[in-house]
Amino acid sequence: MLSGLLRSPIAIQANINIMRAFFQMQEALLIVSNTQLQLEQTRTEIKQLRTDMNGTLADQNEINELTRVQLDAISDALAELQKQDKDFHSLPEIGYTAIQKRRENQKPEGSGG
After folding, report:
1. 41, 32 Cβ separation under 8 angstroms
2. Is residue 113 over pLDDT 60?
3. What distances in angstroms separate CA 40 from CA 33, 54, 108, one per listed residue?
4. Would you place residue 2 in the very low, low, confident or very high pLDDT band (cuts 50, 70, 90)?
5. Residue 52 and residue 97: Cα distance in Å, rounded?
6. Which of 5, 17, 91, 112 has the fewest CB atoms found within 10 Å of its own CB?
7. Which residues contact 15 (CB under 8 A, 6 or more apart)?
8. Would you list the DSSP string of 81-106?
9. What's the Cα-to-Cα distance from 49 to each of 24, 45, 46, 56, rounded to whole Å?
10. Cβ contact 101:93 at 8 Å
């Protein structure tokens, strides 16, 4: 535009430099626009990841709570079994050696057999 009015080499060079500057500004605006779009996409992805992570952690806490309840039930069952084990020792002996001991205890004291 300026070169059309002044028709000098300096004016032509100034006009070229102005056009280059506008072109570079346009490219910079496109880069900024793309960067903002990518930033917004990244923010959306991060929000989704946070939501998914919070859901996963909530599920894990629920599983941990269920596991704790199951472990408590196992502990109670083992404690009950230990109580029954004490009663188990009062049962009579069985098997070949137990039969031999009973026969020896039942023998009359006078027989030498």
Report:
1. no
2. no
3. 11, 21, 101
4. low
5. 66
6. 112
7. 1, 2, 3
8. HHHHHHHHTTSPP-SHHHHHHHHHHH
9. 37, 6, 5, 10
10. yes
